[in-house]
Specification:
About 20% of the residues lie in helices and about 45% in strands. The chain is an alpha+beta fold and about 250 residues long. A hairpin with a 4-residue loop joins strand 16 (about 185-195) and strand 17 (about 200-215). The longest helix has 24 residues, at about 225-249.
Length: about 250
């Protein structure tokens, strides 16, 4: 009987602990970049959180430094704008709601930049970020753009006919608007490439970044605590019952 209770209690702790660790991986505020860096002979693209780390879903901090592209998710909160008409087709259809991360620091949103700071301009040239694919809600559009005097300058768009790449000088770092015209989960696959000046060799690296738009999901990567705990309890409870039957037979 004691073993039975212990197994069920372990399942509850495991299930709730799993939820806590998954939700804690969502970036919600603070300064970080999608960045290029050269490591162990390979060019890589990932997340770089600046000094002090960044805010995480549910409180807490994600540590500063480099992280794999798929190690954390990026939260794009509510308060969308309505897409204007002419000249904004790269971001969706006229009248669409667009959730966005701005190029300036909003304390309630991730301050997402694009970084080539760790690629010395004396050693690297042609640092380019390219859009490979977007997997998201039906009709969903991902876009990256600068905006000046009402005129957008498109850097990336998942809409056919618009820019699929942009370049930064080695050693530099910049910020742009990052927009989504649907609520939901977007998996955005990107590539960084750069040329090593000493031998003209081109290197590249790919990564997929997950954005949670408007809300953090209750399924998939971040399941509801109740459902995860129940699943764990049922799984371990079922295993205990099978073990008990074998002992009785």
């Amino acid at each position: 009987m004691r073993m039975h209770i212990a197994a069920w209690m372990s399942a509850l702790v495991f299930g709730l602990g799993m939820i806590s660790s998954l939700e804690a991986g969502v970036w919600t505020s603070g300064h970080g970049d999608i960045d290029a860096h050269f490591h162990d002979g390979a060019l890589e693209i990932g997340l770089h959180f600046h000094s002090g780390g960044v805010g995480a879903f549910g409180g807490g901090t994600l540590p500063e430094g480099h992280h794999e592209a798929d190690e954390h998710q990026i939260f794009v909160p509510g308060a969308p704008i309505t897409l204007p008409g002419t000249g904004w087709d790269f971001a969706g259809n006229p009248g669409d709601s667009v959730w966005f991360l701005p190029p300036n620091n909003d304390p309630n949103k991730p301050y997402l930049g694009w970084g080539a700071e760790e690629l010395d301009p004396g050693l690297w040239s042609n640092v380019t970020f390219s859009l490979l694919s977007v997997n998201g809600p039906a009709g969903g559009v991902f876009s990256v753009f600068a905006h000046s005097s009402g005129v957008p300058n498109v850097k990336l768009s998942s809409v056919d006919g618009f820019a699929k790449s942009f370049s930064l000088p080695g050693g530099s770092h910049d910020h742009f608007n990052v927009g989504f015209n649907r609520a939901g989960t977007f998996d955005v696959s990107l590539r960084v490439s750069a040329t090593r000046i000493s031998d003209s060799q081109t290197f590249s690296g790919d990564g997929t970044f997950t954005f949670y738009v408007d809300s953090v999901p209750n399924g998939g990567e971040v399941p509801e605590p109740g459902s995860m705990a129940i699943f764990s309890v049922l799984a371990i409870g079922s295993g205990y019952r099978r073990l008990r039957r074998r002992k009785m037979s």
